[in-house]
Amino acid sequence: MNMNYLFIGLLMLLLVFISACTSRTTTNTVSENSGLIEASESGTVLAGTTSKYIDFNKADYERAKTENKVVLLDFYATWCLICIEEQKETVAAFDDLDNPNVIGFRVNYKDSDTDSDENALAEEFGIIYQHTKVIIKDGEVVQKALDSWDKDRFLSEINRFV
Predict the structure, then answer these.
(1) pLDDT exceeding 90 applies to what percent of the chain?
(2) What are the chain's domains?
(3) pTM for this one?
């Protein structure tokens, strides 16, 4: 029985390392022909092409709020097995979303990767558990959930507010 838990734990750790190795990053680009700036995220893109799911950074978060995007904050801890399992569902959902007015952020929470901006964000929204999801629309919290979501639930909850 203990060997099963060890095996599952090692498997989860391997999945985290694999997902970290396959992250994509984007940067802002300027089109010389049109003179327009194509706003794209400066953080690490974890999923999605039109609706991106990225590692939290304050600059992208603030820009998303000023652009009145529907924002998903997914509070995540590297040691949380529920968070690790749920990431597969989050990634699958954002890979399927096709709306430039939606953005998701994986926010580190109470782990070694958590920075001061993430701590302040957790405090602002009264987060007490990892794997909490917060959806913001027009600067207001419209959804806060502690339960685990699968891909379909992510899609249905986000699409309610688009």
Answers:
(1) 70
(2) 2-159 (3.40.30.10)
(3) 0.75
